């Protein structure tokens, strides 16, 4: 996605609903942050910010685990 910190968006259409799943890469793993059912064409900025927050928390907890 543009204007993000390497956050990716996967779009899935099922019937008339469109689902969006947000994720990022950790080496060869895909880390899923969250998802939502889209009602509009544009992705809400708050959802992008939520994914970026999850990513930041993930990397911080990974550093703590290395200790």
Can I get a quick summary?
The chain is α+β, with helices and mostly antiparallel strands and 67 residues long.
What this model shows, in words?
The protein is 33% helix and 40% strand. The chain has 67 residues and is α+β, with helices and mostly antiparallel strands. It has one domain (8-66). Strands 1-2-3 form a three-stranded antiparallel β-sheet, covered by helices on one side. A hairpin with a 2-residue loop joins β2 (17-26) and β3 (29-38).
Q: Regions with pLDDT < 50 over 5+ consecutive residues?
A: none
Strand proportion, as a percent range, falls in 35-45%
| Count of individual helical segments | 1
Largest sheet: 3 strands, antiparallel
State the total count of DSSP E strands.
Answer: 3
The helicity comes to 25-40%
Averaging pLDDT over every residue, what do you get?
Answer: 89
The helix/strand series, from N terminus to C terminus, equals EEEH
Whole-angstrom Rg: 13 Å
State the distance separating the first and last CA atoms: 32 Å
| Overall form | elongated
How many domains comprise the coordinates? Answer: 1
Return the structural class: alpha+beta
Sequence of strands across the biggest β-sheet: 1-2-3
Q: What is the fold's blueprint, element by element?
A:
Layout (H helix, E strand, L loop, with lengths): L7 E7 L2 E10 L2 E10 L6 H22 L1
Antiparallel strand pairs: 1-2, 2-3
């Amino acid at each position: 996605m543009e204007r993000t910190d390497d956050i990716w968006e996967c779009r899935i259409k099922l019937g008339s609903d469109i689902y969006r799943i947000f994720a990022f890469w950790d080496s060869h793993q895909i880390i899923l942050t969250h998802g939502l059912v889209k009602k509009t064409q544009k992705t809400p900025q708050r959802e992008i910010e939520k994914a970026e927050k999850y990513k930041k928390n993930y990397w911080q907890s990974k550093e703590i685990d290395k200790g």
